[in-house]
Amino acid sequence: MSDLAPLARRFLDICQARGILSATAESCTGGLIIALLTDIPGSSSMVDRGFVTYSNEAKMEMLGVTAQTLQAHGAVSRETALEMAAGALAHSRAGISLAVTGIAGPDGGSAEKPVGLVWFGVGVKGREPFAERRIFENNGRDFIRRETVRTALELGIAALETR
């Protein structure tokens, strides 16, 4: 993911300029976003923590995603992404959170929720979290996860630049 390092650096530079810490709440990426951020020397002054919440239980226990949300909408949903982003802010010292939940494949997809579907949640202290949906081409698990990392960082940068 070294080609994503400049994007991660830009995200951290904006966090530093704003004087805020960042947190991640990751499901389908399994910690790839936080790993990329913490690969950058000096990131400890812009990164608070990363939550890897692969299971529904982890989403509930670590982030406060409600059982009702998971039952009504599923783990891969707008509602879950929003609760993940809000939960990462509430359970950290971060000023911005990046949350991802999706279906990276090769299986697990359905007609309603195909492989490649990812919901992104972004939380910024003092604002309502927002969610975005993407369906990435099913070019394999690694491709979907890589594009998820890229998109999460791009959404985080956009959210901070509008502040």
From TrEMBL:
<feature type="domain" description="CinA C-terminal">
    <location>
        <begin position="7"/>
        <end position="155"/>
    </location>
</feature>
<dbReference type="InterPro" id="IPR008136">
    <property type="entry name" value="CinA_C"/>
</dbReference>
<dbReference type="Pfam" id="PF02464">
    <property type="entry name" value="CinA"/>
</dbReference>
<protein>
    <submittedName>
        <fullName>CinA family protein</fullName>
    </submittedName>
</protein>
<dbReference type="InterPro" id="IPR036653">
    <property type="entry name" value="CinA-like_C"/>
</dbReference>
